[in-house]
Design brief:
3 domains, 18 strands, D-Maltodextrin-Binding Protein, domain 2, Bact_solute-bd_prot1, alpha/beta, four-stranded mixed β-sheet
Length: about 575
């Protein structure tokens, strides 16, 4: 039993047994109509307890993926985790559907491998993965997580297979597809412990303005932050939307999509060392609280708020619900948001136009830095972390499977289906056949969870990947969507990556993120004559509560990385 299993098995088994006891109690309450199925489930639950206590493995498999060996005693069973979102259409299950059969027929059978897909509820991803990892021999050969902290913890505790040599030997196509940039996120001190999925679109944010308000006032589209300020004042003073004094020139919430484009535009140019050491990573996002220019950004937000140019209740709007409501009611003149988010069917713009057919919401790139650029963060080039547990006896087959997915047009077929049935190619971009029968449409209901080496559709280059998003939108919003996605990829700031985890970030990240939000709120809402003293006090508290520890560790890590 390895160190990882020893660390996690006892607690995991207790949780497992507790869950099964709860299941048994629920089964006792089953109606008489369900006694037969309840008895069957009780039998399965009991076997699960025995397996958990004994540390043994279960050989039970379901659907068409059962390990029948097809008449050959040498067949291998490869277990692969798959998210279960409870959305399987009629005639399919999460372990037996069009794509599981596609994988079996095109990879499994030709290689004498029986594919077994192990369902994990999406809502219980991390907890269920911890149980699987602690089970030793019961863990699937391929698992994954979106949480970088979980990945690093497994790697540091010896729970993952070192894939460095296996990738060279069995994954040439996979390496070429993922690229060194993506693979770097799965490395720990030079060894490849994870295979991060490749993200197809890195853009994060765009901004949006009421074009019909500008037209009514005879104003041009603002091109800079200063011009935006002038426009916001005109919106407030002249109320072109005839809101009866309820106008909100700048829509704001305490969600990153609203404040990050503004704040990062004030950050000043830095050396590499300053960007590595002064940036604070909380959760999976880089925060500029200690970077030069952060105070200037907060001073500008303070000015907007105190002049009545910003959402008055932004501090209570953590999930953007109030912002969305105000936009759709026609109260907001300008706001920032996740790139194409307003243009989704039944989204903010569609609802706004239902309320006001003459409303026009245009994507714009306004916030400027001192160099005249429009800086904004971009996503890291990865999606989930794909891992092969140390307990797996089929690491080579696992790499071969992922390499197969990256080979030829296998990924394309898994993401898009069959040409002429699921899609039609237009300028090399697959356009979904909207009039296809439900049976055909349902083939790909789980493609995002099966095509695990990619986050988003991969069509060969970034422009085509973006166009795939565009053609998936309602036709009347496609040009707006294209512009918003282009803006989201312009003058972007890449996330900072160290070659090992920063322990202080994991230790203090959650509490410091709460502190950061408190800083945003207080520095925005405080009276202007109290801004400087409040800023000094809030930064002092931030550093004392873990910010200094992160700063010190990042400084040491940067020096070590440069040696």
């Amino acid at each position: 039993m390895d160190a990882f299993t020893r660390t996690h098995r006892t607690g995991s088994t207790k949780q497992h047994i507790k869950g099964v006891v709860s299941m048994v109690q629920k089964l006792k309450q089953a109606s008489s109509k369900k006694k037969a199925s309840a008895a069957l489930a009780l039998t399965v639950a009991t076997s699960m307890v025995l397996a958990a206590c004994g540390g043994g493995s279960s050989n039970t498999e379901s659907g068409t993926n059962a390990s029948t060996d097809s008449g050959s005693s040498k067949a291998t069973t490869l277990k692969v985790e798959v998210f279960d979102r409870g959305n399987s259409p009629k005639g399919s299950t999460i372990t037996n559907n069009y794509l599981t059969n596609f994988v079996q027929d095109n990879f499994g059978t030709p290689n004498n491998i029986n594919m077994e897909f192990v369902p994990v509820p999406r809502s219980e991803e991390t907890n269920k993965l911890n149980v699987l990892m602690a089970s030793g021999s019961d863990v699937p050969d391929i698992v994954f997580t979106y949480d970088s902290g979980t990945f690093y913890r497994y790697a540091q505790q010896g729970g993952l297979t070192d894939l460095t040599e296996l990738l060279d030997q069995y994954g040439p196509n996979l390496k070429q597809f993922l690229t060194d940039e993506t693979l770097a996120y799965g490395q720990l001190e030079g060894k490849q412990y994870g295979l991060p999925a490749k993200r197809s679109h890195l853009g994060k944010y765009s901004s949006f303005i009421r074009q019909d308000w500008l037209d009514k006032l005879g104003l041009p589209v603002p091109q800079t932050t200063d011009e935006l300020y002038t426009t916001l004042k005109a919106f407030k003073e002249q109320d072109p939307g005839q809101t009866g004094g309820k106008v909100i020139p700048l829509g704001m919430s305490i969600a990153p999509a609203q404040y990050e484009p503004l704040i990062w535009s004030f950050i000043k140019p830095m050396t590499e060392e300053e960007s590595y050491t002064l940036t604070q990573q909380l959760s999976s996002r880089d925060y500029p609280i200690l970077l030069p220019g952060f105070k200037d950004a907060m001073s500008f937000m303070n000015k907007l708020y105190n002049e009545g140019l910003m959402s008055p209740d932004f501090s209570l709007d953590k999930d953007k619900t109030k912002l969305s409501e105000n936009v759709t009611k026609g109260l907001v003149g300008f706001f920032s948001e996740d790139d194409m988010n307003p243009y989704y069917p039944d989204g903010m713009y569609a609802t706004l136009q239902k309320n006001n057919a003459n409303a026009v919401l245009s994507a714009v790139d306004v916030y400027t830095n001192e160099e005249g650029k429009h800086p904004k963060p971009e996503y890291s080039p990865i999606g989930m972390y794909i891992m092969i547990p140390k307990a797996s006896k089929h690491a080579a087959e696992a790499i071969k499977y992922l390499d197969w997915m990256a080979s030829g047009d296998n990924l394309f077929q898994m993401q898009n289906g069959v040409e002429g049935e699921n899609y039609t190619l237009v300028n090399d971009v697959p356009v979904v056949n909207a009039d296809a029968a439900d049976e055909i449409k349902n083939r790909l209901y789980n493609q995002g969870d099966m095509a695990i080496i990619s986050n988003g559709k991969q069509l060969g280059d970034a422009d085509k990947n973006v166009e795939a998003y565009v053609v998936g939108m309602p036709e009347k919003y496609q040009e707006d969507t294209r512009k918003a996605l282009t803006i989201s990829r312009t003058d972007t700031i890449k996330p900072i990556l160290f070659d090992k985890p920063i322990e202080a970030q994991a230790k203090y990240g959650t509490s410091l993120l709460d502190k950061f939000n408190e800083i945003i709120v207080k520095l925005t809402m405080v009276k202007p004559d109290q801004f400087d003293s409040t800023y000094d006090q809030m930064i002092k508290e931030y550093l004392a509560n873990g910010g200094q520890a992160i700063l010190d560790e990042r400084t040491a890590a940067y020096k070590a990385m440069k040696q």
